[in-house]
Amino acid sequence: MPKKLLAILLAVVLSVSLFTLTGCNQSNASNAFDVPEEGFDVNAPIEITFTHTMGAKLQEVLNTYIEEFNKIYPNITITHQSAGGWSDINGQINTEIAGGTQPNIAYCYPDHVAMYNIAKAVVVLDNLIDSDIKIGETEDIIGLTDAQKADFIESYYNEGLAYGDGQMYTMPLNKSTEVLYYNKTFFDANNLSVPTTWDELWDVCAKIKAIDPDCYPLGYDAEDNWFITMCEQMETDFTSAENGGQYLFNNAENKAFVKELRENYQKSYFTTQELYGSYTSNLFVEQTDTNCYMCVGSSGGASYQMSNNDTTDGSFAFEVGVAPIPQYNNENRKVISQGPSLCILKGSSTTDQQVLASWLFVKFLCTNIDFQAEFSMASGYMPVIKSVTENENYAAWLAKGNGKEYLVAKCVQVGIDGRDDYFVSPAFNGSSKAREQAGALLLKCLSTPAEDDAAVNKLIDDAFQEALDECEY
Predict the structure, then answer these.
(1) Does the pLDDT value for residue 13 go beyond 70?
(2) d(CA 331, CA 131)
(3) pLDDT, tens digit (0-9, with 9 covering 90-100), for 373-393
(4) Architecture of domain 3-175+339-390
């Protein structure tokens, strides 16, 4: 068994053991932090650690702003490390929590935090956010000012409350969403309109197939996101964080849209990452024997959708357009919000001053205009505060957005413009299972042969029930 998988399994077993011994559940798993009356000691040397998934380019930006942070708090020493990818960091931190060696700050997704909460390892941030205790002899306060709170993009900020108990567990660092990339050169040449709804998209797919019968008009990278997003757009049930977590996706409405997706897949209107065997962005940019003219993918992956990725001389094969993903209807617009947040972890040996130092650094990263701007330009992810446009370099970068060399800037602008449409799925211990099973059942329903309509209905019924059984097992 691979070492990484063994570590993850061990962490889960140890976490579940903690759950059994302590009787923790989602509603009482909080680790509320009481801010000391004396506040933060600006004179005592404090060391904190930060685990993330940043590559070298982003770590350069981080190091620059650690230096800026240390001009304000020279007594805080920050050591940071990259754990690799998202599964790596989740497995590593679960193992460290079980052993009492967790970092002070960590990159996180809601599913991760829900699991860390089993061991009551995540600091609830409400008292820190609301603290008006002054820092040293300055007028600065430990908590967020009203202006800082109002500056956050609401949907990003509210992700920290998505755990079913009304408490704040995370702060948003930077975010991505899904967007529709399309071959603008092809669309313009063939007088095709960019679809805004799924019905419009299937009509466009039919027109594209008439032009290029051997193509896949659409590629969709994340099957699980597609299922979850359709539930949100159609206002059908998926999961709930109430009562410790509920799996609600096995219903007639969801089966109906999955059946419609299957019908369109049978027409070769689309493929997905798993069905194609690679990110569909590769199919989109290669434009070889089998072409793809639209791709739904992460806004944070815009650089992989650039049409010079497969040219030997770096020239652009075509202009890329970027638009919001299609909607079920335009009265209930929804698109998923993803990307790293920050949580503060606390073990038995963690001091109150380390928690305060960790919070001050988290607050700095999440509210600093210049950091948010530079990090967005370097990563392609979207900033989490509205005032970032006050950074002149960032505003100028966004203004350059186009379908070629500045595709990343164009994509970020589309993401910023659509921020009112974002949603986050409820997070609880086990919500990751629902995500995994949503993707798995969609794949099964799309690709499994069935002779007639009755067989298709049985296939879909069985797939939904098997997914539910896997979640509840």
Answers:
(1) no
(2) 39
(3) 999 999 999 999 999 999 999
(4) 3-Layer(aba) Sandwich (3.40)
